[in-house]
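Re: Re: token formats

Sure, here are both.
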Amino acid sequence: MTAPEAKIEQTDEGMVVTSPGWFVVNMADSVWTQDDRGGEWSTFGEPEGEFEQYGIGIHVLRPGQVNGLYHSESVQEDFLVLSGECLLLVEEEERQLKAWDFMHFAPGTRHICIGAGDGPCAILMVGARGEGKKLTTR
């Protein structure tokens, strides 16, 4: 059985995947969401619910911006700093991170990333999905 190639459409915001299947999207052409407090992020133009087993995206933080709320999830997550610097707050401890630092969060690990350094920090974020996934903020 051959897997189909997904359809990709150009929108005013960028490229969006509109059907199931495999695809290639250049992140510069993908849809990005922006927020003054939370930076910029993209989820690879995935169609709603397409990635059933995991979520994946790139988050860019400028100094002082956060990637969300201090939280834990009931499933595991992994982050890889692609460029720049950030401060990781994990289980009430601070860790300075730089390009190529890898973070693994077992289920229930409280964490948040905060942009640091002199410029933007790009982080590849991957998290498990599935029934019963819960997010807890504190």
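Second one below.
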Amino acid sequence: MKRKGRVGNSIRLNVKITILIFSFFFVIILAKLAYVCMSDQVDGINLKAFADNRNTTKQTIYASRGSIYDANGDELAKNVKSYTVIAYLSSSRTKDITKPQHVVDKEHTAEALSSLLNMTKEYILNLLNQNLYQVELGPGGRAITEDTKKKIEKLDLPGIDFVSSSKRFYKNKSYASYLVGYARANDEGEITGGMGIESYYDETLKGTHGYTEYQQDAYGYPMPNTQVTEDAVRGSDIYLTIDNNIQFILENVLTKLKNEHSLDWAQFSVMNAKTGAVVGSATVPNFDLNTLNGISSYLNPLTSYQYEPGSTMKIFSFMAAIEEGIYHGDEMFDSGSIVLKDGTKISDFNQVGWGSINYDTGFSYSSNVAATKLGLALGVEKLKDFYLRCGFGSTTGITLPAESSGVVNFNYESELANASFGQGMTVTPIQMLQALSSLANNGMMVKPYIVSKIVNSDGQVSFEGTREEVGRVASEATIERMKKMMYDVVYNGFDYNKAYSPDNVVIAGKTGTAQIPSPNGGYMSGEYDYIKSFAGFFPYEDPEYVIYFSTKQLISSTSDITKLISSAIGEIAKVMNLASNDTSVEISKVVELSNYISSTVNQAVEDLKSKKVLPIVIGDGTYVVNQYPFSTNQVLEGSKVFLLTNGSHFTMPDVIGWSTNEIIRFCNFIGLSYQMNGYGRVKQTNISPGSDITFDITLEIELG
């Protein structure tokens, strides 16, 4: 019995211990529970925020991107609605067999869509044969236009649907492509800039995104009275300094140059000499901003290409000598060649020179020997300091991405000699324009700018571009002397230089031909391995514009460059009312053009005919979406005005008898490739009047 009592006591003891342990843990659990109930933080986690995050849905409301305009208010870039084509493949979508909601006949669907989406039937069929609920018909079915969407809807294909989104649209395609730049939507639908103004001002154009936030229940449905919405704020609009009248002229002449000759690249830029506003800058090759077809470089030649400028730098080396008081224009020297102390031989471009000539003539003839002698007299520090004062060797600060600074770094006698005529150092086109502005402002250099104003979503101007003085380069006396010397280059130098000047305005300028460094050291030696350039200003009496043209490895004669530059300057002078008075033109026959954009075609045609101007209507639309020449232009009675409509069907006008400039303007205006043969007026084309124009062929033009 005693043994049984001991066993019972042992059992009771174990039970008590078990109860105590259980009670201990129960108290701990209660304490933890109480702590959790009374505390916001548990193990470093905010429980309320954790619960809210699990039950909160937040959706971004993307802001509408601002538009980009030129100086005349014509839209260059804007957001438009676009669509992505999708196909529902699962038969589970169809509840009524008489009204199918999925793709039933895949063969027919692929064949019907192939031409509209620019994809092969086989490619689309592979997409439709996937074992998926739905599929996106890309790439051809991405970012399609409203017009293409309507054409697909007319096919009434079961299972084909559209997802709406926005994309960037560039009305003028390749117009000012490197300046405007492009923007594209990412996978989330946000449009981001990738080049040019679109990139530099991405945040300004993008605006401020909004959001919608709400609590959801266990099944994912929004809970009542929990929604909070912050509206998006539209991006600002940016107005460029680009004048469409000037830009179109530059685009025309460079397109003609590219179509007729082989070249690596060419750029032609014009800046308002008084203010620094860049009013035009064209480049070839260029590219279509809507498709990026043709893009070969992501660098803007205006700001990012740096190269040895050649003899256009003599403007500034001679100017430095004049400013230092060591220049005597009537002093004689022996041209041809000069040997430096280290044995380096510097020769004039013709190798033999022109005998004994004075320094003024040396500038007109672009003598390397004259520049070298002046450079040696100045010395390294003075010439280098003057170049730096002119802005070379540092960025201008223009609001475009990836601006290069160029290199001004010469120390030895041979380097000094080369730098005096623009070799062994590098510049950019925008630096040349900035430095040239000193010639139009009595020695004061002005900073280039590309943005005229920025207007926010409330219509308020948040920024306005204005003239900004960088600093004085030289005295007024030095500038007047240099202007006269540049005038003599064109009118009193070599006979072939006179071809640079048009017959309606007086210009001044300087040519340049620079060797191209070889990757293996030294310089390339091919017949066309040069960078050729022209720097100048007009009108000579009171400069309004400075210009800079440059091209690399152009397989052509110099006469083609002179014709191009002369033609462009003459047209600019005419459209900007700078041309000299022509007594043969009756004032009564000068017509002021109106802005016909957004007006009906009938209204525009009627108004132009009443002014005795010939309207050329392009497309089968009912409204005018673009015109050339632009509003604010003056034209003569009998001139042609191109009106681009909102239609998608284009027919060929009767172009027989049109001038070379008129047919080039027409082709560039609508984006039609062309090939010209001969000279004179249009004699024949491979597309007859009234025939459909398709943009996959080249218009062959015979002139006579």
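The chain is about 30% helix and 25% strand. Residues 581-585 have pLDDT under 50 and may be disordered.
- S.
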